[in-house]
Amino acid sequence: MLNRRDLLKSSALTAGSLLLPAGLRPAFAAGEDITIGAPLPMSGPFAANGKFGSMGTAMIVEEVGRILDRKLGYIEIDTEGKPATAVRKVQEAMERGVTLFSGGILSSEALAMGKEVAKGNGVFITTAGADEITGSECNKGTFRWSVPTFGAIEQTVRPLIEQLPDAKRWYTITPQYVFGDGLLNAAKAIFKEKGIEHVGNSYHSLTEKEFSGYLTNAMAAKPDALLILNFGSQSSDTLRQAVSFGMKQRMTILLAWASGLEQFETLGPDLMEGVYFGAQYWHGIDSPFNRELVAKVQAKHKMNPNYAFASAYLTTKLLIDAAAKAGSTDGPAVAKAMEGMKYAGLTGDEEIRAADHQVIKNYYLLKGKAKSAMKDKDDYADIISFGKSFQSPEEALCKMA
Amino acid sequence: MNRASLHFLLAALVAAALPLFMRSGTLASEVLIFAMAAAACNLLLGYTGLLSFGQGIFFGLGSYAVGLTLLHTSLPLSLALALSTLAGAVAATGVGWLSIRRQGVYFVMLTLAFSQFFYFLAYTFKDVTGGDNGLLNIPRPAIGPFTLGNSWSYYTFVAVLFLFVFAALQRVASSTFGRTLLAVRDNEERARAIGFPVRLFKITAFAVSGAVTGLAGALHALLIGVAPLSSIEYHMSESILIMTIIGGTGNLFASVLGAGFYVIVSDLLSSIWPRWLLLLGGLLVVVALFMQKGLWGLLERLVEALRSGRKSPVEAPVRPESEGRGI
Amino acid sequence: MIYLFQLVNGIGLGMLYFLLAVGLSIIFGLLHFVNFAHGAFYLLGAYLVYDMTERGVNFWAGLLLAPIIVAGLAALTETVLLRRIYHLPHTFHILVTVGLALVVQELVIILWGPVGGNVSPPDALGGVFILGDFIYPQYRLFVIGLTLVLAIGLWWLLEGTRLGAVVRAGSESTDMVSLLGIDIVRVNTAVFALGAGLAGLAGALAAPIRGVEPFMGIEALGIAFVVVVIGGMGSYTGALIAGLLVGIVQSVMATLWPEGARLMIYLGMGLVILTMPRGLLGRA
Does the distance separating the beta carbons of C90 and B108 come in below 8 Å? Predict the structure, then answer.
């Protein structure tokens, strides 16, 4: 029994070591091409983000075509929105020589993939929401484009309090996990500073779909403003149900972490009119680079770029530019090139902070328009204000290894 | 050569052949890890007649146990794996002890309720489990003199454990205990009348199944360096069950086939078409309609056809039976 | 006062849960068929209303048509596929219906995209009902009223008609029904279509409350199972009581201990199975 097992073990070993190259897929065995990995949830509940993210990466890769005298390509990796699948497929891609990755929509998958890519000396840039990515879990290979929860609240709650001096009582609805608490704590700090009465908070789980119970609580507290701190379809559900309870007429509603156009399309102007939204990106941003992108996407896809599209386009571009600057696709060299990089980005001038790999960029406060005021079918909202607010890397708890 | 030896040899062949066909040691490791989980599920489903939706609980707990041990203590990998196995066994004993009080659909629903309950427990106690972010930074330490950093060296480690577990499960299945389980499955009343401690046997089957599933969960966490919340989700239980059923419940090797098929086909389809779940769904329907003995049954028919020197026989379609119904 | 709000709200939720679960319950009662595709019919109902209102069809017409189309599709599925597997063990029921649910979910994504959408309640019910401090969406009140009427109608159908008698007899003994000379095959199809149609109606009614998205079926399935298990499989009254119970618990817990709402519901489900094996009102 034992002997046989030992034999098998050694035969498996030899088989593995001898035939390893044969296992590589021909497409990647060529070795000359530069392949960028796009690990995105192509199936599962976040498939919409994956679809547009993939389109964004495809567009910039096609546009640039070649760098370092090598053909540029990309591979779409379906994470299924599961960290386990994401990590496994990223491992495989790295074994095949991919070193640069742009993707990751969900916090859990992005955190896990960042660790894996850093372990294998690659570079990963993401737009996921978890502050830990450039905070307590920051690492040498992981970069993040999206503004952390602190900035998202600073650039939405603060200006709104200033605009609405009469709104003294705020109620919050928060998903119970680290991301939600990040937003909630930032909001509480501002409430305290501005003398706002925080009349209550409802925590809910990440699988919740029915918010009427929480909204009933919120109404009973008679707030002047309702601050919705969940995201994605949960925030759509919360807003939809809040509007049906007539809360829009009774208070100001702010949805601090909206996904932008892709979410607005599902909500529609009737729900959105008069509601405030916080956003990482909006196709109406008046920056040269964004105007250029909007024109290109309209010409090519007959649509306006949404957040998933635009952010994937930009983050992939950052990888490509950094590789060109570094003169190689070697992970540490590309990471080095990205650190401190300043560029004209989608939201104006942007900068990759070297200490924690966080991109310093604007966050936007939008306000939903009436249907009659919309200039075209995507003109759901106007930009009310924007700006940059970031904690220092130390405050964000990043200790770069 | 008897059947058990043949099945073991086939399992060993799979473990040896995977490196020849797989482009990555990671995917190959995942195949064997889920083969363990499916074989453990088969011990309940095929041998004991218990359709458990709780396998994800044991898998997830195994993941957390190995992660917590390696992150918070200085125990060696072997002990961490032993603890995960124990965690799976203990949880399975508890879940089994309560669930087997009910039969048929109510048993299934009870395991389903447990599965949801443990998920929300893991979600709520985020200080321990990492909540939605998962338990990050799980290291993959060396075992004795062998480092496991490389994906093929880790595969070798998993393969050795897999064959060991597979042989152990075979021993369990072919023991008096295992044969009694079959008797319980076929006619519980009679087994009880003969004087078998049916409940104890079922709980023991659960414990063994949970232990192996816990170990599989631990190996999976080591593979990906994280114990994600999705490992303890209801979908994990569902996947393990589907693998087991696709493979066939007649013998333990069938589960290896099922797991290999499910993992590899999912991987392949998902790289081709984002809507691959449509194809997977269709496949499940086809299996239920035409391949009730699973892939193993298909294999048997093929071998049979080859032996008798005829072309593979046209499959007789399942006759619609409106009167009969099984429970 | 807040608990009174939550109670009313819980009843509103509960009636919807009842509608969703009663179909699953009678399908199990008559056919002894474990249907993991029940959520898919809910999903289809919601998307059909969404599609029709997007095309400018009147909401009321959509609300009427969507469940009928769903029931038709269900009857077709039953005839072509499901009746071939009734005699097989539960394992295969689960396999087929999990597969079906995946197929429907992905077809929905292919047909309507992965993003989801919004369904506006009809104009007449778009506002809120105000009574002093009590504020409640008119549409939700309408849903409570309509489901109440449907519940009565369904009760009559099951208790007062020949079909109902067959269904009730069938859930005890198929052979007996066959002996009575009733075409059980057609009754099976009818009951399956009815159950699925009710799920479709629940989806259609929920669309203006929840919006539509391709994964709403999975959540619905989970709730339906909890309600059916607590109420007792095959029991109409059980589904009604359990539906209301789950709705009220969910709503009241939102005030008491929101994080624990789900934990409580599944714990409750486990306890009911353990202490009352047939559910609150299940038939033996």
Answer: yes
